[in-house]
Amino acid sequence: MLSNTPMMWSQNPQQYTALVVDSNPHMMTIIRRFLHQCGLRGVIPATTIAEAMDFIAKVPVDVIFCDLGVKPKGGIEFLRLLRNPTGSHNIKIPVIMMAEGASAQMVYEARDKGANEFLAKPLALKGVERVLKATLEKPRDFVESDVYVGPDRRRRQMDVGNDRRGGADDEQPDYQQDDPENPGSEPDNRLQASQ
Q1: pTM summary value
Q2: How many of the other CB atoms lie within 10 Å of CB of 91?
Q3: Is residue 59 within 8 Å of 87, Cβ to Cβ?
Q4: Which of 125, 124, 143 is nearest to 38 (CA)?
Q5: Is a pLDDT exceeding 60 seen at residue 171?
Q6: Where does the pLDDT of residue 147 fall: very low under 50, low under 70, confident under 90, or very high at 90 and above?
């Protein structure tokens, strides 16, 4: 039985509009029901990539749920079209990719093509709520470069301390360098045990 108790949001979820791109009518019904239970009122269905791109050009959308196997060419093609900066649409719309039997390779490919998140089917309401809330309320920075357009793929901000490219006071790396006395020798690049 599905819970009718939505998560606590810092913003009213009714303000958000979601586009659901899935060729399977049964899955479309389930995803739309889950999104309504999460508090979203605007949920737009699209069964093809062309239909989805048409909606994106005409209607402001806050988040997209897209099936990896959407017809005719799949969710990766949809991401390629959406993240194309030469289009007249908003390339920064967050995309939550979904797939049955999701493998690590599928997740990596979707991430590398610009997906914000990935959900494995069958979906669970709690998983949809968690990913939706994180995507809308804590969006990641957006990257636009020659080789990648999409959300920043780094999930954590980590303090790396002193960068090894710094000054002479930096620690030495944990591997042996070339022997300056014997420049033609092979370096020993195996990690040495910490002392």
Answers
A1: 0.73
A2: 17
A3: no
A4: 125
A5: no
A6: confident
